[in-house]
């Protein structure tokens, strides 16, 4: 019953409000004011019958009439408590607005401060003076030249401060600066002293040339690093994987890179033998510099200069040592998967990453802290690597602006880094050999590109396996499966 009565009262209240508003509207029209204003005034004059709905019900009164002009004037009537409440509310809103704006401005200012501080802090920071001689020399080059990180084609302009090696000055003289700029120079191994004294020399005359090797543009140029006494290795390469001519429809050219083996290093005089070999095969490049381990980097840059001048038309270059076996057929098959235009930046090999200089003095790759500090960029092991002819021309250019480093494959990695490139690791390069149990299995070499090390006899033997049509390789699925060896 109570619920029914309550609902009835609610309906009546709504009807009364509706009727009341209609009456108010009629009265308001008579006095030419808005019905809501009339309603507020009417409710104020009859406080007992209505409950206020808002604060404005307590303050807004019906406009009065000005006796002079007859225009309506709003009249605000309220007591002291109401006025105080409105003032406090307005003050609170104002204070909130001030706090928000100040916080926003402070936050924006702090962000701007941080943004300005991040980049210029490094940009304007005074470079620290390197304690290592190689680092200082490279920093000097970086300060003098703009390094073409993409596609360098023109030699740097000749201006004051240009390195001597770009002026092609010969003969080269030792750099006496190293005696005073490297604190422990006198205590370094003799090989380091020699390297540092002549580190700025890059121009040496070519004793033996092979100018007609690339008269017809080769598809693949095989550049083999060797020394004069290793005739047996060179001959084995000529008779096996490095045989020049047409292979699988592609022209192959092979050159051997030599320096001068001096009596200083206790080598016998083999100059006449090398001249005869060069005349017989026409594939020997020999420069008049001391052929040592640390000068392998010099051999690298001298080859790049020869390549850019005499064999720039080669599509691909394979650079390797003379104690490796190379499956040339598989290499050509691999390159056949790509168009030449898609392999302009190709550089593959057995890539080494996260490496640094060895500090143990008796190791072959020992580098003193006074010579170099830092980490090595990714580089391919010097046993062998493959790159495009286009990239070879860029390596030629950028190598002029990188200080010679004692380890040739690390130096090549430094040049690649300057070009913004990273060598790609290929599983077909085994510069640390394969498992011993597979070394006499012909099929183990079918899918490889390079295996290191191999003797001259091994090269000829494995090459015969690769080209023997009777050798069939298969995957053993059962114990009864037979594969021809």
From TrEMBL:
It catalyses: a beta-D-galactosyl-(1->4)-N-acetyl-beta-D-glucosaminyl derivative + UDP-N-acetyl-alpha-D-glucosamine = an N-acetyl-beta-D-glucosaminyl-(1->3)-beta-D-galactosyl-(1->4)-N-acetyl-beta-D-glucosaminyl derivative + UDP + H(+). Its cofactor is Mn(2+). Belongs to the glycosyltransferase 31 family. It is an enzyme of class 2 (transferase). This is Hexosyltransferase. One of its GO terms (biological process) is poly-N-acetyllactosamine biosynthetic process. GO terms for molecular function: N-acetyllactosaminide beta-1,3-N-acetylglucosaminyltransferase activity. It is a single-pass type II membrane protein. Keywords: Glycoprotein, Glycosyltransferase, Golgi apparatus, Manganese, Membrane, Signal-anchor, Transferase, Transmembrane, Transmembrane helix. Interacts with B3GNT8; this interaction greatly increases B3GNT2 catalytic activity, independently of B3GNT8 enzymatic activity. One of its GO terms (cellular component) is Golgi membrane. The chain crosses the membrane at residues 85-106. The keyword Ion transport does not apply. The lineage of its organism: Eukaryota, Metazoa, Chordata, Craniata, Vertebrata. Signal peptide: none annotated. Its main location: Golgi.
């Amino acid at each position: 019953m109570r619920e029914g009565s309550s609902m009835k009262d609610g309906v009546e209240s709504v009807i009364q409000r509706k009727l009341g508003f209609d009456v108010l509207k009629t009265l308001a029209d008579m006095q030419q004011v808005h019905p809501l204003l009339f309603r507020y005034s009417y409710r104020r004059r009859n406080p007992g019958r209505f409950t206020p709905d808002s604060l404005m019900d307590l303050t807004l009164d019906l406009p009065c009439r000005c006796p002079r002009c007859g225009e309506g004037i709003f009249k605000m009537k309220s007591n002291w408590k109401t006025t105080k409440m409105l003032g406090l509310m307005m003050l609170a809103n104002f204070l909130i607005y001030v706090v928000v704006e100040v916080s926003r401005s402070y936050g924006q200012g702090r962000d701007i401060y941080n943004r300005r501080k991040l980049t210029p802090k490094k940009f304007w920071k005074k470079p620290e003076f390197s304690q290592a001689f190689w680092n200082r020399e490279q920093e000097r080059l970086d300060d003098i030249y703009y390094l073409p990180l993409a596609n360098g084609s023109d030699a740097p302009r000749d201006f004051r401060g240009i390195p001597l090696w770009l002026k092609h000055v010969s003969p080269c003289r030792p750099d006496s600066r190293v005696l005073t700029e490297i604190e422990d120079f006198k205590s370094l191994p003799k090989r380091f002293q020699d390297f540092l004294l002549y580190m700025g020399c890059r121009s040496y005359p070519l004793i033996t040339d092979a100018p007609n090797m690339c008269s017809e543009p080769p598809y693949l140029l095989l550049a083999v690093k060797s020394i004069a006494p290793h005739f047996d290795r060179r001959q084995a390469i000529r008779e096996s994987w490095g045989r020049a001519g047409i292979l699988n429809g592609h022209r192959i050219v092979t050159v051997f890179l030599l320096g001068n083996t001096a009596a200083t290093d206790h080598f016998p005089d083999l100059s006449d033998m090398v001249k005869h070999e060069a005349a017989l095969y026409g594939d020997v490049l020999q420069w008049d510099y001391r052929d040592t381990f640390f000068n392998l980097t010099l051999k690298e840059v001298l080859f790049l200069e020869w390549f850019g001048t005499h064999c720039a038309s080669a599509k691909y270059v394979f650079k390797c040592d003379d104690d490796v076996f190379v499956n040339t057929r598989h290499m050509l098959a691999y390159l056949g998967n790509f168009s030449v235009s898609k392999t302009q930046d190709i550089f593959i090999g057995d890539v080494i990453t996260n490496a640094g200089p060895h500090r143990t003095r008796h190791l072959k790759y020992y580098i003193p802290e006074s010579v170099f500090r830092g980490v090595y960029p990714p580089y391919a092991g010097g046993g062998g690597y493959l790159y495009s002819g286009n990239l070879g021309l860029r390596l030629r250019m950028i190598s002029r602006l990188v200080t010679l480093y004692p380890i040739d494959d690390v130096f090549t990695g430094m040049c690649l880094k300057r070009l913004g490139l990273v060598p790609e690791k290929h599983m077909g390069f085994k510069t640390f050999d394969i498992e011993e149990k597979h070394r006499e299995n012909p099929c183990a070499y079918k899918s490889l590109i390079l295996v290191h090390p191999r003797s001259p006899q091994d090269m000829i033997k494995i090459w015969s396996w690769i080209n023997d049509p009777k050798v069939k390789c298969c995957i053993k699925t059962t114990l009864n499966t037979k594969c021809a060896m």
